[in-house]
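Practice problem: predict the structure.
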Amino acid sequence: THADIRPAPSAFFSPKEDYIGMPPLSLFASEGHYWATMLHELTHWTGHKSRLERDLSGSQWSSSYAKEELVAEIGSAYLCGYFGLTSGLQHETYIDSYLKVLRHDLNAVRWAATRATDAFNYLHDTIADIEALAA
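Answer:
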């Protein structure tokens, strides 16, 4: 399965329509920012009901939204590390903003890190499948 990535004025994942919207590289401060954002959105993409089936229904600043944002940002950090991307990353600031929403949920980080690991493995396996098909 391949992610449907479409040009958009801002970065987002649409669970209802199952596609990623991404602005052009020229609108980002650096190539590192672009790829960190793309990997964040790809992590959201893994949560679709046809893939890992995470709850993607929460409204902004709800607990479920904050948990999914933690998953996506931790997943992006894992993927950036895997690909050796280090420039322009702002994971700590982003994660901290959602931890404030979840400050009473002591298991939120563990829960999100487990889902981020699942997302990383899903994307890693998808990449391996694509490389095997291309060989």
